[in-house]
Amino acid sequence: MATARMESVGPVIMGISKQNGQFRGHTKPSSQTGPTGESSQPGKIPAVAQNPAGGSQEGPGIRFGDDWKKRLQLPPKDNRIKTSDVTATKGNEFEDYCLKRELLMGIFEMGWEKPSPIQEESIPIALSGRDILARAKNGTGKSGAYLIPMLERIDLKKDHIQAIVMVPTRELALQVSQITIQLSKHLGGVKVMATTGGTNLRDDIMRLDETVHVVIATPGRILDLIKKGVAKVDKVQMMIMDEADKLLSQDFVVLIEDIISFLAKNRQILLYSATFPISVQKFMVKHLQKPYEINLMEELTLKGITQFYAYVTERQKVHCLNTLFSRLQINQSIIFCNSTQRVELLAKKITQLGYSCFYIHAKMMQEYRNRVFHDFRNGLCRNLVCTDLFTRGIDIQAVNVVINFDFPKNAETYLHRIGRSGRFGHLGLAINLITAEDRFNLKVVEDQLVTEIKPIPGNIDKSLYVAEFHSASLNSEAETQEQETLPLAVKPQAL
Asked: Is this model's pTM higher than 0.85 or not?
């Protein structure tokens, strides 16, 4: 099971390294326990994730007739229960897509045993060169759905940029570049580069003097490099947009349109997201050529995530959070606030309560953001307080609890926040602290997402969010309607 690796924590020393988002408090006895170890999923981020110059790893050659599967260095098998979000497949295997053996080795060594539904639908179409508009739930394997066909089509004999992956945040760029490098490590020299704002432009310029096959980038930085004539994209055959709804929002759409104007007319464009507003439809009509549309969103929320709300006053929120920490079996948690100031204040409060805590937000220096992201992903801390910076695509398998300390303003943000738990069909818990001002938003979110957010019970069944306690069937939910509720969790009288 993916678990957080906890380090021994000394006494609280406030004010030290405050900028880097890392607060630690002394260890406080609670039920936040779990077996020690690191995530069996992609965990440690090597140098490329911290250095956007990137690179790739080369594996040993494979001779004809090798029993190559016996030579794989497979991660520990993940035996946690998975929901139909990722198991409701057609029964295909990765070998069915006629992929290079070296790429298959990278896939299996990632711990990916069989393609998920979005991968089954997407991989063969992407390999054919057709444009794709794909909609699938958070955490169901969208990255693999585009990275696998992208790497299959890379020609190592050509020394120019062949594919661009556009993402909205720097952290997601680092994550995607890490996955790309791991998948391609046996391919014998795929050069991967991550380039984002907030990093040294000169380093990127020097890196592009060398061979680069794949660029993972945020829109502003790659457009800057293109306009300077450093990043030559006229021969790019594939442009991928992950979290496409965000990339086509008002924040980025002008930059995206500008980038596309530098690409060849016969390029392939792949769009992936969990939500597609009207802006995506307009973009599709203008730039995609007879796109293949994939929609795996019969319902919007992940099946493995159980959602609760606690009705509190603003002054009671910290006390309620402390109660949750003491009662829940948290592997790792992400706690969302609606402003950067509240992120830092809450992180300080959590530390004073005796729990180790990191925080991250967009106003931090990129160096510190990278460090916090890296350390939290590697399990060095159990709790992370953040803004919506962390809602897009971030995949940390050990996270089993998401807490909305501040309830989001719209259903789309809510959907992306709770999607940080229950990754790849696993179990997760989403808890919302609701004030009188939030109760109408709560009803709107329930209606728009066609989901139910229940009042929090006095004792939350661990089988809902802790893999070891999960019963044989997800459908055998215990009847908790008449359980005593938490003192602070009073159901709103009129929503």
From this structure: no
